[in-house]
Amino acid sequence: MNTRRELPESPYLAAASGRSPHRVPVWFMRQAGRSLPEYRELRAQHRMLQACFDAELVCEITMQPVRRHKVDAAILFSDIVVPLKAAGIGLDIVPDVGPVIDNPIRTLSDVQAMPALESPQVAPVAEAVRLLTAELGDVPLIGFAGAPFTLASYLVEGGPSRHHERTKAMMLGESSTWHALMTALTDLTIAFLQAQVDAGVDALQVFDSWAGTLSLADYREFVLPHSSRVFATMAAAGVPMTHFGVGTAELLGAMSEALAPGAARVVGVDWRTSLADAAARVLPGAALQGNLDPVVLLAGWPVVEKAVRRVVEDGRAAVAAGAAGHIFNLGHGVLPATDPGIITDAVELVHSL
């Protein structure tokens, strides 16, 4: 049952929905963890996946940046491989490497043997959502999942990859196996997002982190139909939905097409594309999220201040050019070496503007 809250004063939800917020909303991808000393203290006692399946730890880590930085949205502490692990796929998140798959998916029989995800398998995640919505007050909670293509890239490669050779080889050379895999992963992504919606998240974001490795033609043929089904299915939840990728300048129009018509739609933009240019590429009615280069936060306050002001102005230009709204964020996640004080100051500056 959907227990979504009513948060009429939320700047984040207003901007995502095409309404006028009372201030520019700001939150940061990977704000839950990475740079925070309080997070590192907890992680010293718990492995990543262990933490992701502990409802109280998920709640605490998700709350840390909200308490410290006063951001306008919380994003659930989790990882895109959590639903894979929950379904029974053997994997681990190896420090300084990333997700490593025990038995990579390489054949049609491998795909057919993949387990489905059932909601009881992610009960700790749902419990964390319930704890958070009780604690967050008027701050919205964003649930998330990895997009089918990005999940497929880990499963086929067996771990992180620079060139995605095996993934593209299957996609281009064994299209029936590829579409079977993407269908299974679309079902899994929908199940994971639905569990979060049922528990009460206020918005959703789908991370297609590696889609930027594809040409527009390949994206349209091999990825867009599956991502579109995710968003079309989740539109019934009635929450804003964001589609995000890295290096996806040429894909922004197609990624906005994947978002379900009629829903509150947000397209994430990385630092390589100006928000005003992105506004011309996405479909009408979509808001934009982004797009400060995360490395800027390492360059000292004078540089950060100038860059933050530039992104806010670019966001205004994007809205003037037809974007439904602008949510300030990074073009990707917070880097571990970032000074938390700089993040707090950046939030204060965005709010002041």
Question: How is the largest sheet built, in terms of strand order?
Answer: 1-4-5-6-7-8-9
Number of helices: 16
Tell me which oligomeric state these chains represent.
single chain
Structural class: alpha/beta
Please trace the helix and strand order, writing H or E for each element.
Answer: HHHHEHEEHHEHHHEHHEHEHEHEH
* Average pLDDT reading: 95
Q: Can you tell me the overall shape?
A: globular
Strand percentage lies at 5-15%
Computed over alpha carbons, the radius of gyration is 19 Å
Stretches where pLDDT is under 50 for at least 5 consecutive residues are none
Sheet with most strands: 7 strands, parallel
Count of distinct strands: 9
Termini separation (Å)?
39 Å
Question: Level of helix content?
Answer: 40-55%
Descriptive keywords:
47% helix; 353 residues; 7-stranded parallel sheet; 16 helices; alpha/beta; two-stranded antiparallel sheet; globular
Provide a descriptive summary of the structure in words.
By secondary structure, the protein is of the alpha/beta class. The chain has helices at residues 11-16, 37-43, 48-52, 55-69, 82-87, 108-112, 123-135, 148-157, 165-173, 175-199, 216-222, 224-234, 252-258, 275-281, 301-320, 340-352, and strands spanning 74-75, 91-94, 98-101, 141-146, 203-208, 241-245, 265-268, 286-292, 326-330. It has a seven-stranded parallel beta sheet. Strands 2-3 form a two-stranded antiparallel sheet. The protein is globular and about 55 Å long.
Give a topology summary:
Elements: H1 11-16, H2 37-43, H3 48-52, H4 55-69, E1 74-75, H5 82-87, E2 91-94, E3 98-101, H6 108-112, H7 123-135, E4 141-146, H8 148-157, H9 165-173, H10 175-199, E5 203-208, H11 216-222, H12 224-234, E6 241-245, H13 252-258, E7 265-268, H14 275-281, E8 286-292, H15 301-320, E9 326-330, H16 340-352
Parallel strand pairs: 1-4, 4-5, 5-6, 6-7, 7-8, 8-9
Antiparallel strand pairs: 2-3
Helix pairs in contact: 4-7, 7-10, 8-9, 8-10, 9-10, 10-12, 12-13, 14-15, 15-16
